[in-house]
Each structure stands twice: as C-alpha cells, then as structure tokens.
Design a protein that fits this description.
Radius of gyration: 21 Å
CATH topology: Growth Hormone, Chain: A
Distance between the termini: 21 Å
Number of helices: 19
CATH superfamily: MFS general substrate transporter like domains
Number of domains: 1
Shape: globular
Largest sheet: none
Number of strands: 0
Structural class: mainly alpha
Order of helices and strands: HHHHHHHHHHHHHHHHHHH
Helix content: over 70%
Strand content: under 5%
CATH architecture: Up-down Bundle
C-alpha cells in the first residue's frame, strides 16, 4: 500500500518524541539503579544478569503478539493509542512498586518480580509506539523523524542519569557516606527518581492518547496468520538480515549497559565486589550521562545521513564508530581512557540508532505492506529484547568463566557489531533512488 500524503508533521513527531523521552527515562532508571540495588542482595554477576535479562524474555514475545493484534484492531480510539495508554499507566505504577518493594526490604525474589512487572508494562506498548512513526510519516521523511525521536529518547536517558547523579551527590554530602548508592538509600532522595519517572510515563502516555489522532487504518485484504507473518520474515532475506544484524549490535550494547558497573569496578579497583560496585556507582551514572550526550550528537546527523547519503552507508559508519572503542576497551586502565572510549562509542551508537529505526518502515513501503507496521515493529523490538536476554545470561556466564574479568565483554561486543555490518551491506532492497549506495 502506498502512503498517502503523510509528510513530516512536527506536531506528530514531537509528540512521539515526548513519548520516547518518557520511555527512555523509565529504561534509564532500570539501567542506572537496578544493578546497584540488586548488588545489595547478591554479588553474583550471573544472578544479577539473569534477573535483568527478564526484560529480554518478556520483550521477546509481548511486542510480537500485541504488535500483530494492534494491526487488526478497529476502534474509535485507534489501533495503537489504546495500548499506549494502558501500557503507560501500568509502567508508571510498576516504577512506584519497585521503589516501595526495595524500601520495604522485600526479599530478592520479590524485588525481581516487581522488575518483571515493570518490563511487562513497558513492552505492552513498545511495538505500538514504534509503529506510529511510519504510520504517520511517509518514506523519505522518516530519517529526519527518526533523528528527532532518537534525540529525545536519549535525552530522556541523560535526564535520568543526571538527576540520579545529582541526588547521589546531595546524599553523599549529607550522610558522609562515600558510596553513592548507599548514601542515596539512606536519604529520602532515593524515591525522587522513581516518582519523576512514574509521572513522565503516565503523563506522556495520556498526552499521546488524547492529543494524537491516528490516520485511518488501511484495509487489510488478506490478513496473515500469526504463524504466516513469522514465516514471511524468515522467507524475506532483507528482513531476516536486518533483524539478525540488529540482534548482534544490541547484544554488544547490552553487554556494556548491563554490566557497566562491574566493568568499572574491575578496571579501576581490580574486582567487582559489592563495595567496589557501590564505589563506582556515581562514576557509572556520570559515564552513562556522557554516553547519552554523545549519542545525541550522533542521532540527528545520523537521521539526515540516512535520508540523504544512503541507508547502508549510514548504518555501517555508525556501527564501525561504535565498535572501535570497544576494541580499545581491552587495553584501557584509567578513568580518563574509559571516558574517552564511551564518548566515542556514543557518537557511533547515535548514528546507528537513528539510521536503523526507519529501516523496517521503508522495507514495508517497498514491499507494499504498510498495513503491517505493528507486527513488523513488534519483531523489531523482539530483536532488541533478545540481546538483553542473551547478554544478561551469556554475559554473566562469560564473566564468571573468565574469573570475574568484566573487561572481556569489550572485545566480544566489538566482534558482534562487526559481524552485523556485512548483513546490512548485502541487503538488496534497502536503498531508494536518489541516495548513494543504491543498487537500482
């Protein structure tokens, strides 16, 4: 199906960017605080990684299923917005439950369950949020839209990491405790990031539900069965190559994101004990904020490059820039070297994210399957969630087999990214006329 008159609409794009900002605040809360809070329960990298990998297990199935059913939903509220409202409300409540559970001293299994409910809530509307962009922006403008949305998404990460770092500094000053997360837990400041995150998640979901008006749902003449849709992905080599490549580069990212505190503690202090992890928590938040700043620097030009210079080239440039600092990561020993490496990697990641988001929408346009954005972006999210599952469990196991050497995750992550690049290069229908690197 051809898109009809859905150009670049700033109001729609900024509304989606606001939703992306709020979701990123939620995911950043998870990335920034879950690992150190879990360290209060256990020092095992495998146990912590496995609990955090619940996100990947849930994300492997829920976006695929709900994305599929949102394609065929016919209601006066639209196809995507009902999922967005329900998911946002659930996610906001889940965030408050995480704080309440930790503050009440629930056992490890109880804390893990609250994290699991949060992951479920966030994934209730993951595919629908992703699908709204190609639903409302036509091909040729999606790179620019992706750049703006990616910019705000990673600004959400930066906001949360900055807020948490600031609160830790206040807590350290008040308590005299040198370990940031321990100081934060001793003050009322710990609740603030959770309350703010809940407000953003609920507020943005309601805003999109009441403000955005979805375009009229296209008629689906021959709807695929769930099995038929999954089968069609495997049969179409371009979709299969892209999904496989995305799985690899997200697994590389999650190796670092999940185990960053362990990596910092190992490199700077020689081991990832509970004390050392808590000692580097403030530094970790600072480095996450820095990474997100450089992601912002790469995101907007990444979207422009995607539209103007070519799909393959923009993805490969971003991937290589992201991989090179990880190769260097095996040799770094100082805080300054870590800072430089993550800063460079962030620029590459920003380009890669902005350039990869519109690919599925453009492929669906190419194959005249634009009615199916929900299900294909559901699978898109599954291939972003599978790496969380794999990185959490496999990464934790690798670290333990390497004698708790967290540094080993750097070169393995670089290898995964570089393996993904040929898959993108050999996609046959990625380019459009008028871009460099096209095949037609």
């Amino acid at each position: 199906m051809k898109s009809g008159g859905r150009g670049f609409q700033w109001g729609v794009v900024l509304s989606l960017a606001l939703l992306g900002f709020s979701r990123s605040v939620g995911w950043a809360l998870n990335k920034g605080l879950s690992f150190p809070l879990l360290s209060s329960y256990t020092e095992s990298a495998f146990v912590k990684g496995t609990i955090l990998a619940i996100e990947g297990l849930i994300g492997l199935f829920i976006p695929v299923l709900l994305g599929y059913y949102s394609d065929t939903l016919r209601s006066r509220h639209g196809r995507r917005r009902p999922f967005i409202m329900v998911g946002g409300l659930m996610a906001g409540v889940a965030v408050l439950m995480i704080y309440t559970g930790y503050a009440m001293g629930v056992p490890l299994w109880g804390f893990a369950l609250t994290l699991g409910f949060f992951y479920l809530s966030m994934h209730v509307y993951t595919a629908q949020y992703r699908a709204l962009m190609p639903d409302t922006v036509e091909s040729g403008h999606r790179g620019k839209a992706s750049g703006v949305i990616t910019l705000l998404e990673w600004a959400g990460n930066l906001f949360l990491f900055g807020l948490a770092g600031y609160l830790m500094a206040l807590a350290v000053a008040e308590t005299g405790e040198s370990e940031g997360i321990k100081a934060l837990a001793q003050t009322p400041y710990l609740k603030i990031p959770f309350i703010v995150t809940a407000a953003f998640l609920i507020g943005a979901a309601l805003f999109v539900y009441f403000i955005i008006r979805e375009p009229e749902a296209p008629e689906i003449e021959e709807n695929e069965s769930l099995w038929g849709y999954l089968k069609s992905i495997v049969e179409n080599r371009d979709f299969l190559k892209f999904y496989a490549a995305q799985t690899l580069w997200w697994m590389s990212f999650e190796f670092i994101a999940i185990f960053l505190y362990g990596i910092l503690a190992y490199i700077l202090h020689g081991s990832a004990s509970e004390e050392n992890i808590k000692a580097v928590t403030s530094l970790g938040l600072y480095l996450m904020a820095l990474f997100n700043v450089t992601v912002l620097l790469g995101a907007l030009p990444g979207g422009i490059i995607y539209d103007r210079l070519g799909r393959r080239l923009s993805i490969i440039v971003g991937g290589v820039i992201f991989a090179l600092p990880q190769i260097w990561g095996w040799f770094i020993h100082t805080e300054a070297e870590i800072t430089i490496a993550l800063g460079i990697a962030g620029i590459g990641w920003g380009i890669l994210m902005a350039a990869s988001y519109p690919v599925i929408g453009d492929l669906l346009t190419r194959f005249e399957r634009e009615a199916f954005t929900g299900r294909y972006y559901g699978f898109f999210e599954a291939t972003r969630s599978l790496p969380v599952l794999l990185a959490g469990t496999i990464g934790g196991a690798i670290v333990q087999l390497a004698g708790e050497n967290y540094r080993v995750l750097f070169p393995i992550g670089a290898l995964l990214v570089l393996l993904a690049m040929p898959m993108v290069w050999f996609m046959k229908n990625l380019e459009v006329e008028g871009t460099r690197g096209g095949t037609e």
